[in-house]
Amino acid sequence: MSDASSAGGDDTRPPGVDALHSTIQRITANIEQVLVGKPEVVRVALITLLSEGHLLLEDVPGVGKTSLAKALARSIDCSVSRIQFTPDLLPSDITGVSVYNRRAENFEFRSGPVFANIVVGDEINRASPKTQSALLECMEEHQVTVDGETYRLREPFMVIATQNPVEMEGTYALPEAQRDRFSARVSIGYPDAAAELEMVAEHAVQTPLQELQPVTDATEVAALQRAVQQVHLSRDLRRYAVDLVTATRQLPELRLGASPRSTLQLVRAGRAQAAIAGRNFVVPDDVRSVAVPVLAHRLVLTSEARAARRSTADLVKQLLTRVPVPRGEDERD
């Protein structure tokens, strides 16, 4: 049986899917001028953008975490801000603060750097938990509340944060509530020899990031996000996503399984993956291909599993081999 029939879909594409595929190709080509030889990392970043999520880049220094974030931001003609997280950073340095205007004899709100379409948070785990918590409302509700007043953030809105998992001195581990708000986590890793050689040749004279030009804008990105929402997800695939997430809560190696929020992010990412592939329906492989980046960072190992050097990514991969994949005809809702 074909993937289309197993997903309950057809070959009729709704308006926006063709445009999405073309735009994503342009953004991908743009980013790959900066991040050489990492197509899988770029794919996850774009899936996160299209599914209206937030991305956590976790890796050692010097592999291109900030460059990826900046390249994605510069590829979209929209407002971008960068926050360097440090131990002395305050929540108001992120969200903004109310300042008294003597002339008008009232308080005026001065917005912080979070009021942008794309917010790049560099080394997020170097700020205190109090400061990290300033992003909780922003990431979940796309709004900021200061002194009892609520201010809406710009749309589209995306946080791209980086952190170094190796150097832990002077850092604060992200709490589960913060990690759960990141739709996906990805590690870039070292490039292979050929990609590194190409990078050295291209970066010898100037940094490609400096010459990068936008290939789309915020209005088009918002339209593409709406197009992704229309991608068909069958009842059986929704049940499959729930089964995957439920299975994480039953693993003896885990102290904390994935949350219901992760189920929502999993199906949204599956829709985005299908749209990137040029389809208006989701197939099982779409969900499976995003399961590790969406679920692994939300899981908390037991002390015994950590001592045994178990990996949450490996546990998710094991679940993908054990949880039955839907194969039959699905009903349209």
Main sheet summary: 5 strands, parallel
Strand order of the largest sheet: 3-6-9-1-10
Tell me the fraction of residues in β-strands, as a range: 15-25%
CA-CA gap between termini: 20 Å
Q: Helical content, roughly?
A: 40-55%
Treating each run of at least 4 consecutive H or I residues as one helix, how many helices? Answer: 16
Helices and strands in order:
Blueprint: H1 3-6, H2 17-31, H3 39-50, E1 55-58, H4 65-75, E2 76-77, E3 80-84, H5 92-95, E4 96-101, E5 106-111, E6 118-122, H6 129-132, H7 134-141, E7 143-146, E8 149-152, E9 158-163, H8 176-180, E10 184-186, H9 193-202, H10 208-211, E11 216-217, H11 218-229, H12 235-248, E12 254-256, H13 260-276, H14 284-295, E13 300-301, H15 303-307, H16 312-322
Parallel strand pairs: 1-9, 1-10, 2-11, 3-6, 6-9
Antiparallel strand pairs: 4-5, 7-8, 12-13
Helix pairs in contact: 2-3, 3-13, 11-13, 12-13, 13-14, 14-16
